[in-house]
Design goal:
268 residues; mainly alpha; 10 helices; 0% strand
Length: 268
């Protein structure tokens, strides 16, 4: 029987997006049914599997379009799809790179870590598939627009340490999604695009849980290292993240995820 880490690697390094989604969701289901053994841990590679498109550009080069046309709507949702695609890879990489680290390699804790991040990866895969259905309805595909790679670049820059990865990826960048998604929902409501609104509302609700998982594991790692989580978070973000955190903040969603003002206001 192939071990969990080998199967995670298969999904992570799969280049075809929808196949990656299918592999990830199937693996999460098998893991929750206890039909996968732990097994050996392959060496994590620097890059995940990804298709040749979209073309990756600097954030300032990603075109911004209004929602008055199908192309404008597709461009915005394509940007969200690219974030979700990177989030699948980030969650799978979290397992492959850090589930055998000193702080979580205890047998029972390791299994909880794998379960948490597989559930995140499976959710992100479902989000990506929902957006693909939306784009296809408008006659667009993933890769039809350029995209920036901020989430994955942050994952690469924090590959050296689990606490740094948790601080920057879920607790800064994914938490930012909690702030901006309500504004996107309101934009689509103005254009009576109920399908986009439905998809974004699903993403918003489930991203709260993802940020909560990141915050939970950051607290665990900080405690195991004998560090106070809040100043440790500030230290890691200042070291590994460029710039300041930008308001407005979706305080209710952040609080629900266990991410309180003491974490982020001093960095804004």
């Amino acid at each position: 029987m192939t071990g969990i880490f080998e199967q995670v690697a298969t999904a992570l390094y799969c280049k075809e997006p929808l196949q990656k989604c299918e592999l990830t969701q199937k693996l999460n289901q098998q893991w929750t049914q206890n039909s996968v053994v732990v097994g050996p841990v392959p060496v994590a590679r620097p890059k995940p599997g990804r298709p040749d498109l979209p073309i990756l550009v600097a954030p300032s080069k990603v075109p911004k379009r209004g929602l008055g046309t199908d192309r404008g709507k597709a461009a915005l949702m394509h940007a969200v799809a690219h974030i979700e695609f990177n989030a699948i890879n980030m969650a799978l990489d979290m397992i492959l790179r850090f589930a055998n680290s000193e702080e979580v390699s205890n047998n029972q804790l390791q299994k909880v870590f794998i379960s948490d991040w597989l559930s995140v990866a499976a959710d992100e895969a479902r989000h990506f598939s929902l957006i693909m259905e939306y784009l296809n309805k408008l006659n667009f595909e993933y890769g039809d627009f350029p995209a920036h790679d901020g989430l994955w670049e942050a994952s690469e820059q924090t590959a050296y340490d689990i606490a740094a990865r948790l601080a920057v990826a879920p607790m800064v960048l994914e938490a930012r999604g909690l702030d901006v998604t309500p504004f996107m929902i309101n934009k689509f409501i103005k254009f009576n695009d109920l399908q986009a609104v439905k998809v974004l509302k699903v993403i918003l609700v489930e991203e709260v849980a993802h940020v909560a998982i990141g915050t939970k594991w950051f607290d665990i790692i900080a405690q195991k290292r004998g560090r106070d989580p809040i100043p440790y978070f500030h230290e890691l973000v200042r070291t590994n993240f460029k710039g300041m955190l930008k308001p407005p903040f979706n305080n209710p969603a952040r609080y629900e995820a266990g991410l309180f003002e003491d974490f982020y206001l001093p960095l804004s």
